[in-house]
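Slack export, channel: ligand-projects

TW: morning all. Re-posting the request from yesterday since it got buried. We need the structure predicted with the small molecule present, not the apo form. The ligand is S-adenosylmethionine; the SMILES is in the block with the sequence. No rush, but it would help planning for next week.
GE: picking it up
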Amino acid sequence: MSQVEELSLKKEYENLSVRREKYLEDIKKIIIDSKSSLEGNSFYVHGTLNIYSDLYNKQINLFWCGKQAVTKICEIGFNAGHSSMLLLLGNNNTSLDFTIFDIGHHAYTKPCLKYIKSEFQNINFEYIEGDSTINMPKWIKSNNKYLGKYDVVHVDGGHSEHCISNDLKNTHLLVKNGGIVIIDDTNVAHINYHVDKYISTGQYKELNILKTHGYPHRIIQKIKINQVYLNTKYSWQNDTIIFLDNGKMNAFGQGTYTQQDTYKYQANFGGRIHDLIFNDDYTKFISTRQDDNLIVKCKLIL
Ligand SMILES: C[S@@+](CC[C@H](N)C(=O)[O-])C[C@H]1O[C@@H](n2cnc3c(N)ncnc32)[C@H](O)[C@@H]1O
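GE: finished. pasting the full token output, ligand included:
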């Protein structure tokens, strides 16, 4: 981001300070009433209501990301709604779907969500309470029309290795080509490692908006690369196959594949050659086995 763009973004953010301060004060009252200590967020020192000025750039980044959303935002880890508020603050779209996954362990989470809903009445919120590693795959399965449709996903739920690997895997399914993923707390080594891993697949590039301090985050953008989902199961009759990196695949033992055209692949497994034709979002394909023309219809398993 150029200096001119940065200045103009910060000015826009500051022009909204009256509205923002009102939200912060109202949310603070709810937290105090709940008598619970506030978990880490985009404004305060973890466990307190003391403003953490190092988080300023993070606020601006979330504000910027929210402005990029056209139809759909997802947040894993709502907590007291501070980052949701920032994502929505500068977005002037008249209707937006906002999907939230949170385990709901904090007494203030639901009242804060009620408050955010009342302040952003044009937004269509959906709150899915429970462990995101269990609920996201379930939700995606019953809402598979939203695969690859999300403009922005904020990944800020559980921070364990299990949570981050699953949350990123599910986020990858939801985010559209060109969509943005914000991953919080990349000071945690295993979280940072997963971000590097996604970038190294070539399917994401890093967006350097403003450098973040305190509890830093990273922002990556999905690149349209027109290829199969890697490391994700596709059905194969009553079994599954997986396309790996470097043209290898797990398909009843080790196999190989090559991409021949945008949607056309050839796979060699089980000692036989298969011609695969994918649909335009790579969630389905039809396989024709070369020696006997056996046709198998396959789809991504969620
Ligand atoms: C660090 S806080 C999120 C802060 C918020 N995004 C912000 O910046 O204001 C993490 C949130 O994730 C939730 N959480 C923790 N583990 C989770 C899990 N396994 N599934 C879903 N949510 C989880 C916590 O309850 C908490 O609300």
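GE: first-pass observations. The helical segments are 3-15, 17-34, 56-68, 82-89, 109-119, 132-142, 161-174, 189-200. The pocket of S-adenosylmethionine is lined by residues 39-42, 77-79, 82-83, 101-103, 105-106, 109, 131-133, 156-158, 163 (CB under 6 Å).
TW: perfect, thank you
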